[in-house]
């Protein structure tokens, strides 16, 4: 899992096959000690890395989760052999293991998988170097010509029409996120094929919180004349989402606030999780970094994020996060926009995300938000410690 993009999560107490939550025996539950686990893990992992163990009791049943972060710069290699009770080899010294689509852990099976792993390592090292020389490397963003602006606006309008047509009417009645990304210079067929658009989206997906951004709905994802589109209708989760990704590099995504759609989270007034703002915007910028590094590495991007139905909406605390003070927005809509080169985005996506987050907070009249709090939650997100 550590050698898989965005890592993964192990859940103990859920039965294989039907995923029924059956819980764990007390002895098993108590056996999960963070220090002992770290010692055991790093007996076999090189370089060493940390996982987060969390214990839960829900409806009297006990569960344990292990959040596994993606490797930092160098892929994780097995440094010792080990056999099971029947003397069958389980781990092989010097092997690189990956998680496959069949939910199995295997030694890297082919050249393509090895290239993918090495490419991610190279990108991570490149990001590290870019951060060091950012001010020397980044160029000035290019200007957007009028014709390009018209083409981009047309694609955004088409995407909006598609999303509103496919999602139920409830979507327009709740607050939602609106994401509009584009790249310059504008090329209508920058990505040569629809299949390549789909491949690039999948390669750039964010899975740090247990779901995919952007989501490929099993029944509602399809190609259209100029790109790939998908939407998620209201289901058991109450979630509404839709997007279009164009061959030009334009990406348009809309998603309802979970604060407005999950009944258990409602507080009697319109609310927005202050931690949720950090996590959501950071995911958007991380996706943009991954996507445009592949789509237009020498280009300039404009990243626009809007929040609707914000008037009289309050920043709120959910879970263990505490927010001291009451911060209310008096604007009907909040918009933040970032214009930068793809090189700058690659070097500083997290810093650029914090600037956008701070702007949202300011429009909720929170003028002294802490940089350290934002960094803290960003690090927890990237390291799967939520």
Commentary on this structure:
It is built from 9 helices and 18 strands. It has 386 residues and is of the alpha+beta class. The strands form 6 sheets. The protein has a 7-stranded antiparallel beta sheet, sandwiched between helices. A 3-stranded antiparallel beta sheet has the order 1-4-3, with no helix packed on it. A two-stranded antiparallel sheet has the order 2-5. The longest helix has 27 residues. It is globular. The mean pLDDT is 86.
* Count of helical stretches: 9
Poorly predicted ranges (pLDDT <50, ≥5 residues)?
none
Report the mean per-residue pLDDT as an integer: 86
H-E string? EHHEEEEEEEEHHEHEEEEHEHEEEHH
Number of strands: 18
Largest sheet: 7 strands, antiparallel
Strand content: 15-25%
Instruction: Classify the secondary structure makeup into a structural class.
Output: alpha+beta
Shape: globular
What's the gyration radius in Å?
22 Å
First-last Cα distance: 17 Å
Share of helix among residues? 25-40%
> Which strands sit side by side, in order, in the main sheet?
11-12-13-14-10-16-18
């Amino acid at each position: 899992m550590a050698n898989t993009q965005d890592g993964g999560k192990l859940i103990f107490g859920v039965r294989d096959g039907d995923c029924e939550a059956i819980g764990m025996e007390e002895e098993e539950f108590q056996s999960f000690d963070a220090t002992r686990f770290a010692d055991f893990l790093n007996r076999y992992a090189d370089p060493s890395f940390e996982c987060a163990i969390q214990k839960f009791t829900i409806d009297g049943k006990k569960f344990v989760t292990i959040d596994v972060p993606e490797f930092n710069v160098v892929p994780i290699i097995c440094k010792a052999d080990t056999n099971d009770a029947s003397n069958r080899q389980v781990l092989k010294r010097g092997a690189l293991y990956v998680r496959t689509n069949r939910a199995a852990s295997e030694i890297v099976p082919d050249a393509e998988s090895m290239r993918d792993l090495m490419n991610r390592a190279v990108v991570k090292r490149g990001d590290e170097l870019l951060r060091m020389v950012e001010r020397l490397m980044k160029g000035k963003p290019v200007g957007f010509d009028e014709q390009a602006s018209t083409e981009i606006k047309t694609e955004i309008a088409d995407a909006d029409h598609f999303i509103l047509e496919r999602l139920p009417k409830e979507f327009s009645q709740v607050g939602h996120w609106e994401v509009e990304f584009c790249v310059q210079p504008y090329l209508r067929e920058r990505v040569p094929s629809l299949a390549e658009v789909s491949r690039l989206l999948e390669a750039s997906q964010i899975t740090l919180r247990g779901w995919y951004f952007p989501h490929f709905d099993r029944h509602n994802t399809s190609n259209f004349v100029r790109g790939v589109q998908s939407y998620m209708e209201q289901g058991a989760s109450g979630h509404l989402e839709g997007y279009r990704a164009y061959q030009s590099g334009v990406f348009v995504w809309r998603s309802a606030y979970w604060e407005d759609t999950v009944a258990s989270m409602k507080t009697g007034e319109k609310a927005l999780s202050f931690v949720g703002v950090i996590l959501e915007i950071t995911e958007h910028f991380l996706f943009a970094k991954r996507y445009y590094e592949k789509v237009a590495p020498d280009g300039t991007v404009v990243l626009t994020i809007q929040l609707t139905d914000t008037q009289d909406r309050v920043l709120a605390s959910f879970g263990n996060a505490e927010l001291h003070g009451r911060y209310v927005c008096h604007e009907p809509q909040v918009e933040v926009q970032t214009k930068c080169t793809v090189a700058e985005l690659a070097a500083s996506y997290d810093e650029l995300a914090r600037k956008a987050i701070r702007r949202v907070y300011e429009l909720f009249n929170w003028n002294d938000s802490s940089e350290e709090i934002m960094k803290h939650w960003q690090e927890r997100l990237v390291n799967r410690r939520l």
